[in-house]
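hey m, so remember when u said the tokens were messed up on ur end? i reran from scratch. heres the input so u can diff it against urs
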Amino acid sequence: QVQLVESGGGLVQAGGSLRLSCAHSGISRSFMGWFRQAPGSDREFVAAISYSGESTYYPDSVKGRFTVSRDNDKNMMYLQMNSLKPEDTAVYYCNKYPPSVLYWGNGTLVTVSS
């Protein structure tokens, strides 16, 4: 059974940093990703990482500011977010990449104040 639990969200001022964590179980060796959904918007891709961690992918909107990593021994994935902007405000989710509709968790809320 797959379980995904996101944590680490909070309120931060613009320019600040946060580190999100994703505790996962039941997911075999695969790409994993971070996604986010802002109020009134569709869920969007934020970052992806291969099982080995050697390959990572980001959309232009976060490239150079966000860094995805994973610790397979601990079944954890992380998202280091720096230079946060108000437009980064959203609920952040982890999932396989590409995502499975079966695996969405509750997410963790990130709020960036201007």
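this time it looks ok to me. The CA atoms of residues 23 and 76 lie 5 Å apart. if urs says something different then somethings off w ur setup not the seq
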